[in-house]
Design brief:
globular
Length: 185
């Protein structure tokens, strides 16, 4: 977890470091322990007003692919700097015409101990064709919880940020001003 202030500094660093013509707008910057995901808006392709859905979809896909290839070196240079500075991998994505595409992103292993009832839930999702593996089923469950509890998770994140601020003001925050012990005089 990072604080809102840390997130704002991170966003500011990327806004200042990204080439001016990379994105129309930096739309989202997400961070966790392993990864920083940078998503920006790119211009939609110009199409005739009567273009079919298939033509629009193909044009959006091509625009995203063209952007990815054309900007690879610039994005890699920014990612190298950010990874060195923030000690996290950097992933990239774009929004174009209402569509979001992620280019690279971290799939972090999660170690957990599940009891039989939890494993049975995952196995049911596999048997039902919802997931290919227990790992995939667990990711599906996390996305389901996330979708239905966004407000609750936002409140929890705010509370965690408050805890971090309070900890930072604790007695260990200013170790330099510790008075000498009685027996040191």
């Amino acid at each position: 977890m990072i604080t809102n202030e840390q997130r704002e500094k991170l966003r500011g660093w990327f806004a200042g470091r990204l080439p001016d013509d990379l994105f129309e707008e930096l739309t989202e910057l997400t961070v966790d322990r392993e990864e920083i995901t940078v998503i920006g808006r790119i211009p939609e392709p110009r199409l005739a007003e009567d273009a079919s859905d298939a033509e629009r979809e193909a044009a959006l896909e091509s625009r995203v692919q063209e952007f990815r290839e054309r900007t690879r070196e610039d994005r890699m240079a920014v990612a190298r700097d950010a990874e060195h500075r923030f000690r996290r991998k950097v992933s990239w994505g774009v929004e174009c015409g209402g569509r979001r595409a992620l280019f690279t992103h971290v799939a972090a292993p999660v170690m957990t101990r599940l009891r039989q009832p939890e494993r049975q839930v995952l196995d049911t999702l596999i048997a039902g064709g919802v997931a290919r593996s227990r790992s995939d089923a667990l990711a599906w469950c996390v996305r389901l919880v996330q979708r239905h509890t966004d407000d609750w998770l936002a409140e929890l994140r705010d509370s965690l940020e408050h805890v971090q601020r309070v900890r930072a003001q604790g007695p260990d925050a200013e170790m330099d001003h510790t008075p000498p012990a009685d027996d040191e005089e």
